[in-house]
């Protein structure tokens, strides 16, 4: 049976002790459990990554459109000169 995006799964994880301590301290500062801290930080990191990729896509698309307009304008000016 396929998992739904809302399903909660258990995941065992190996990480360095120094990182566990950093997570523990961050969780304490934000008044969250270590699990909630890890989930929040992973979500934020992945959202930023996805947002950055989406922004790059839009920038590329805008640049392509601007380049196409510039070429069209140059062709139009050449046609007017003849």
Q: Can you put this structure into words, describing what you see?
A:
The chain is mostly helical. It has one domain (17-81). It is 74% helix and 0% strand. The protein contains two helices and no strands. Helix 1 (17-29) crosses helix 2. The model has no long low-confidence stretch (mean pLDDT 88).
What characteristics describe this protein?
82 residues; single chain; mainly alpha; 2 helices; 74% helix
Record the SSE blueprint:
Layout: H1 17-29, H2 34-81
Main beta sheet, described? none
Oligomer: single chain
Counting DSSP E segments of at least 2 residues, the number of strands comes to 0
Low-confidence stretches: none
Distance between the termini: 69 Å
Nutshell version of this structure?
The protein is mainly α and 82 residues long.
């Amino acid at each position: 049976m396929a998992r739904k995006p809302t399903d909660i799964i258990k995941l065992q994880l190996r990480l360095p002790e120094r990182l566990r301590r950093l997570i523990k301290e961050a969780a304490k500062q934000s008044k969250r459990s270590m699990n909630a801290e890890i989930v929040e930080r992973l979500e934020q990191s992945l959202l930023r990554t996805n947002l950055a990729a989406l922004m790059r896509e839009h920038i590329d698309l805008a640049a392509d459109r601007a380049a196409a307009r510039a070429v069209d304008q140059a062709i139009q000016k050449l046609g007017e000169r003849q």
